[in-house]
Model the fold of this input.
Amino acid sequence: MNKSPEEISQLQRWILAARPRTLPAAVAPVLVAWGLAIRYNAFRPDAALVLLLIALLLQINANLINDVIDYQKGLDTAERLGPLRMTQAGLLSPRQVWTGVAVVFALAGLAGLYLTLIAGLPVIIMGLAAFVGALAYSTGPFPLASKGVGELAVLAFFGFLAVCGSVFVMMGSVPALAWWCATAVGALTVNILVVNNLRDIDNDRKAGRRNIPVVFGYAGGEAEYIGMQVLAYVIPLLVWLSGLAGITILLPWLSLWYAFRLARAIHNRPQGRQFNPLLGSTAQLVLFYSLLMAVGVIFNF
Done:
């Protein structure tokens, strides 16, 4: 952003706090769930749209929580290399952000009530799990992001809960194919976190955080990034060979050129804020990959 903090309007502050570049990670697994529901003749347009809305709201809520908690814990300072954070920059007060958290969660809850009419109590359980997960990621007695298990949280919530939970709402069950797809999408989404961790490796060391780049160095983080890519692109092959889906499940391979490009950019060791465009590009890859997977699942040749 080229504007000075004083030139940023109130609306722009809330938009930035929502972190639009991360929102493709919320959309992607829902698109895959749509594809699976269509394949099994269980697609419901009303439920599909509400699921997408809730996914976006929960992602925004997680971003707001992270913004305010990292500031209150002293993790976000003037030295941070990532995009501007509203609480740390003084553009939104902690009280404002926590109020925003409450409002967004209430909106997600209202939307979730509609889904309970379709799928019952499990919807409430999944919604509460997502909210508690957003809190536990940044705070509590065992903050996941600081204890080296942030990747598992991303895989659980952006993979299994987002894909399989959405499929359950529309189908009432979760076929084996959904678990494979969830693992692939979740693995690729983990790389959004990896880019963050590589960018913030020095600050995370100072703050006492534990993650793969901090423990194993930049090379360890790079290996993690490439490993998640390999897992995401091997899974469609395994699914096809197992007979769970037709050859169209390999459609995500059309995004391999973009994955190679990002892996090469990571290998070249960008400096500081050069990681920020890579963050958005990694999120775009997740969306592109997931769209192709959804199409591949639907056609199932």
Remarks:
- The two ends are 45 Å apart (CA to CA).
